[in-house]
């Protein structure tokens, strides 16, 4: 047992078991399209977590890009129009 795990259980924080970690990683794998496609292949928890982090980063980039595009569209639209109101509601 690692010293970090033994310290956390002594501090009153419930210890997460290896089975719980495996279950959580499995649930995360089901949410990631790239890992879902490779379901038949066994992927290590480390590799799965790397893929999950990469996927989350790509989602952040996509959200940022869409937000920038909506902001540009709003800047080029009459601010009193119905279209501008819809765009503003999407940005909030």
How would you describe the overall organization of this protein?
The structure is a single chain. By secondary structure, the chain is mostly helical. 74% of the residues lie in helices and 0% in strands. The N terminus is likely disordered.
Q: State the shape.
A: elongated
Share of helical residues: over 70%
Low-confidence stretches: 1-8
Give the overall pLDDT as a whole number: 81
> What gyration radius follows from the Cα positions, in whole Å?
21 Å
Give the helix tally.
Answer: 5
**Largest sheet descriptor:** none
Order of helices and strands: HHHHH
Strand percentage lies at under 5%
Query: Span from first to last CA?
Result: 47 Å
- Class by helix and strand content? mainly alpha
Number of strands: 0
Q: What is the structure about, briefly put?
A:
This protein has 92 residues and is mainly alpha-helical. It has five helices and no strands.
